[in-house]
Amino acid sequence: MKRAYVAGEWVATGRTMDVVNPFDGQVVDTVALCSTAEIDQALHKAVVAQGETARLAPYQRAEILARIRDGIANQREAFERTLSLENGKTLAESRLEIARSIATFDIAVGEATRIYGEAYDLGINAMAGGRQALVRRFPIGVVSAIAPFNFPMNLAIHKIAPALACGCSVVLKPASKTPLTALMLAEVVQQSGWPAGGFSVLPCDRTAGQMLVSDERIKLLSFTGSPEVGWQMKRDAGKKKVVLELGGNAGLIVDKDVRDWDWLINRAVLGAFYQCGQVCISVQRIFLHQEIMGEFRARFKKAAEALQPGDPLDPQTTLGPIIDSNNRKRLQEWVQEALDQGAELVTGHSVAPIGQGNSMTATILEEVNSSCRIAADEAFGPVVTLSAVESMEEAFQRVNESRFGLQCGLFTNDFDTVLHGFNTLEVGGVIHNDVPSFRVDCMPYGGVKDSGLGREGVKYAMNDMLEDRILVYRNR
User: 362, 305 in Cβ contact below 8 A?
Assistant: First the structure.
């Protein structure tokens, strides 16, 4: 059994929860569930430790971050296997996430030494003459990090690494379905030299976890998850700063001037079905110039049908399972709703014929009513819709009709169209000649509208975790 990590101590709480493999339903491990008593203890010690973490010199924070980075790298295979078992990622997908986790800490190593302030003369008029200003940036205080199941390592680290780089204490609530890699990370942090009270990993249910939203000792709440939960958390958070990454139904736009069909199809299949579509920036809606609709459909269908559902630990598997049976049933209901309203099934819409687990075949729909849930809401599964458009302007308008706005992919060889899309699309990021699923861990990442508030990416997350403080001094 895995104990909770409460302010530097491994704690058995008296309540437990099984972590289940989403492929075969087998128990992977059991973890201790925290109550409000353990959370209160973690927050108390985080506040105490904040005085110590804030005093760490930039080079000391960088050295600690480097030790955490190296600690993950030294246990890479164990992290990868555990990630596949608790989450259902294929081994290839788990390898990529752990590589990105290492890279995210590596980025934070550098950013920890680049927290710059400024100095300037305030003498803009006679009243301020003889006065100078020194502005420094100080850590905001205790950070509450609430992570999702789909990237239980790297999306947690996108909250943890910037906080440590700033000198903030962190309390992490991992997703209930995927707490194991977070607890493995706690073991690495424990050996890194970070002040013991300044980091906790607290598996808990939503009732106890509400304390990590509303408690006034927390100065910043960073949440990744569903819009409904995220916006309610913002209402409950009180005076603290809130950063939300809430997902979407990302669009991919393809102009008629396609030159490299292999690249386009390979990236579209990856973007739509990577990690069984359980990615906030998964390709969900594809808008194609009508002149290339037929060819794209045929090529995309063939590539999607070549994906192999199965056991994530089997190297031959290229399409892992959905996280649980409830989400698989929801997806199938949404697909059926679209079909009942006149959509056409290009391929898919069945439980993979492997006799077990929550696998679902890669599914492509066409002529979907935009009000159907599979188009209007976040599918979070291996389902994508195709729509023909007469122009790029129409495609931009169709993307903008969504209540979400995270990222959008745009395939075109006309740079005027790229610039027009950048100026027109209501999203947090436009990705040229690639899918919206593209992300590098140093870039600003986040959305508009119902897709969230604020930005991740180490440097940009740190901006919310630091507060400016000014010293005004007068020359004699």
Answer: yes
Q: Which of these is catalytic: 34, 276, 280, 408?
A: 280
What is the pTM for the complete model shown?
Answer: 0.95
Token pair of 209 as six digits: 């976890």
For residue 73, is pLDDT > 60? yes
Fold of 251-440: Aldehyde Dehydrogenase; Chain A, domain 2 (3.40.309)
If phi > 0 it is left, if psi is from -120 to 50 it is alpha, else beta; for residue 213 that is alpha
The one-letter code for the residue type at 222 is S
Cα pseudo-dihedral 462, 155, 36, 140, rounded to 10: 0
- Catalytic option among 93, 111, 245, 456: 245
Instruction: For residue 219, give the amino acid letter.
Output: K
CATH hierarchy code of domain 4-246+451-474: 3.40.605.10
Determine contact, residues 411/260, Cβ cutoff 8 Å.
no
Residue 146 pLDDT more than 50? yes
Active site residue 245: yes
- Statement: residue 242 has pLDDT above 80: yes
CA distance 253 to 268: 11
Active site residue 442: no
Q: Where are the domains of the chain?
A: 4-246+451-474, 251-440
Query: How many whole angstroms separate alpha carbon 453 and alpha carbon 446?
Result: 7
For residue 11, the cross-strand partners are 4
Please, which residues have CB within 8 angstroms of residue 449's CB and are 6 or more apart in sequence? 402, 403, 404, 405, 426
Alpha-carbon distance 165 to 158, whole Å? 11
Calculate the CA dihedral of residues 8, 11, 15, 19 and round it to 10 degrees.
60
Pairwise CA distance, residues 239 & 87, whole Å? 34
pLDDT tens digits, residue range 186-225?
999 999 999 999 999 999 999 999 999 999 999 999 999 9
Specify the pLDDT at position 351: 59
